[in-house]
Amino acid sequence: MLSFQPTPPLDTVPAPPLHFADRTHQMVPSETRALFSMAAREDVVSLAGGMPSPEALPAQALREVLQEVFEAEGASALQYGSAQGDPVLREQICQVMAAEGIGATPDEVLVTVGSQQALDLVTRVFVNPGDTVVTEGPTYVTALSTFAAHQARVVEVAMDRDGVVPQALADTFALLAAEGRPATFFYTVPTFHNPTGRVLGADRRAEVLEICRRAGVLLVEDNPYGLLHFGERPHRALCADAPDGVVYLGSFSKTLAPGLRVGWVRAPRAVTAKLVLAAESAMLSHSKLAQRAVSRFLDTRSWQGHLDVARSLYRGRRDAMLEELAATMPDGVSWTVPAGGFFVWLTLPAGLDARAMMPRAVDGGVAYVPGTGFHTRGGGRNVRLSYSYPTAGQVREGVRRLSDVIRDEAAGGRTSRLREAVAR
Amino acid sequence: MLSFQPTPPLDTVPAPPLHFADRTHQMVPSETRALFSMAAREDVVSLAGGMPSPEALPAQALREVLQEVFEAEGASALQYGSAQGDPVLREQICQVMAAEGIGATPDEVLVTVGSQQALDLVTRVFVNPGDTVVTEGPTYVTALSTFAAHQARVVEVAMDRDGVVPQALADTFALLAAEGRPATFFYTVPTFHNPTGRVLGADRRAEVLEICRRAGVLLVEDNPYGLLHFGERPHRALCADAPDGVVYLGSFSKTLAPGLRVGWVRAPRAVTAKLVLAAESAMLSHSKLAQRAVSRFLDTRSWQGHLDVARSLYRGRRDAMLEELAATMPDGVSWTVPAGGFFVWLTLPAGLDARAMMPRAVDGGVAYVPGTGFHTRGGGRNVRLSYSYPTAGQVREGVRRLSDVIRDEAAGGRTSRLREAVAR
């Protein structure tokens, strides 16, 4: 038996010099994240975050489901799971993907810590330092952090109202190939895009797949919002029509609960095999309890009914935002009209800068994310507005305040104070 | 609104050629993991896995705690959390570490998906491809996977019964520095080491810290088993005496439940800041629900009482294993005597090879992990035995079977069959 012999404290041990890896120098705090703490002030209506609404999370059902998992499985639900993820859940994920036209098998699926980890693992498995990743411009902010952490070069391709512009994508691939630095993959959020809310048009989907195929570039389709449509079902997933050329990222974070951290990646089998190994060295395995809870929810509760509740709630908030934008925004401001998802992308009048305007906005009681966060460069005239978390009333109040802020900023005025905004 | 226009299926889209990143070629299936599925056969007593005992997991308490979290926090427990982890839990983790002499503050702590993710993030933040990581030989098998995934070169340092040999460590550092490829960090499991069960001696702790300090090498202390001691408390953590030179990895996987995936890393503030950024790009944030559950357990249940139950249970199984080893093993077999943790490290008689013996062992109704899995090379005469998961009775039966297998293997015989082992 050991006896307890405390090690004598060393005399003032100086810290060793810290030699971070090269990639670590590219890890810098995201401006967007810093803004979220600013937006957390109680007197500020935040249109910044992309969190789901608490009312859209089936808290009571998940609470009961967790009890049922313990009832049925006992301590086994608290053990290590397999690196690839719960086999039953992987089958159910295939059924979830089938709603978007994807025909997948459980052995192609890896369960991940949200789709963020899926993207990190895909990047880890494919990207050498200096490799090029092509994205839409703008693109999801934390995807940019992931690519930076893996020392990827990011090249953006222009979007219009129907999503990424196919000719621009083809030109970019050709230019990169001519440079001798061909794209490693094209990362896209084709449906209810973050941050613009746009949808890649039906005809364009076939075009984009064909362009990637001809260029021999893998397509990474990130689709956390596809099931949150406000009207008819959106177009089939890109993965549905080119399973061998597409790595698909899915998530229950927007539809069920971010706090369970259950997402997934579906990839061609040879890719999935590598992703499983990468996941094992990255975390051994995902939470078995969280996976069993999602699995049981899908098995015993009404997934469609739950989605209908969420869609209806977000549609109401989107409507509130669009109505208030139309009613209050000054001339020269334009915005997208999302048919699903969480976001509206707003363009300020020429001469205004969304980042420079932030202090005035917070002073005026409203927060948003400046467009620069979603670009490697540019985006200064853009603002991402989210209607997912605040109530419809808060959404309207936030938009009214923002309209005042923009008017004031355009006038170059210095008079907008929170107290006036509240008093009016 | 979108209309649903299915994309026409493309004609036979061929798969793009897969160009994996360089690091991906180093991701190969671990022999150890493959063995676990072999060991899952019902007629085999597995001494292979390192899972905690179901009886040592406070399933009922965690079930109740989860209900209380929902009761107190509602849907908020299902939201995204901060990238660094729940602030209350980070304070409690500091109290847990205090039991091993560590004085840490919550801002130094990052909550991770088990300590496996902590190790992955530490490696990501410090290791460039080709950099050298120094480990004990043998060392934790999935640490080797993590280092391989980051293209690290691993150099092992010999251990004896008191843990890593200080002179060998100093010589290794000197040699690496002379080569112009100094060690990036020294990874060690100083207390109830995986796979040997050994403890780094009290005097050696100060020596090892001093050697690292002089060489300017960061020390990464992995300590998942420290609180599972069978006698008096083990020595102070290395981190306790050199907080500026040590990155400390902790975990609730062995003490509370692996299925919640809650571990942590404590590092000097400048390192933690980078680790938080790495974690954010790797997974956004950990499960808030899992973190709140652990936090509430620590707050409202008897942590010490729970640890006492677990210690007593594992002590009983260790005793069973040691008694049966002493009673049945043939001459020429030796083993370690762990004072805590999950593992016994056995050395076969000269001429025997643990990996080559595996088919005979499974045939004989017992599974273990061959020592080669814990080394970059060598270890062929060693076997890791775990007593954490099987009951004391199963431990005894497994050891008896293993003794027969070793006898048989040493005799070069071909007669050992499962039915005979069962019949005797």
UniProtKB/TrEMBL annotation, chains A, B:
Pfam families linked to this entry: Aminotran_1_2 (PF00155)
One GO molecular-function entry: transaminase activity
Gene source species: Streptomyces salyersiae
Cofactor(s) annotated in UniProt: pyridoxal 5'-phosphate
UniProt-recorded name of the protein: PLP-dependent aminotransferase family protein
Keyword annotations of the record: Aminotransferase, Pyridoxal phosphate, Transferase
Domain Aminotransferase class I/classII large as annotated: residue spans: 47-402
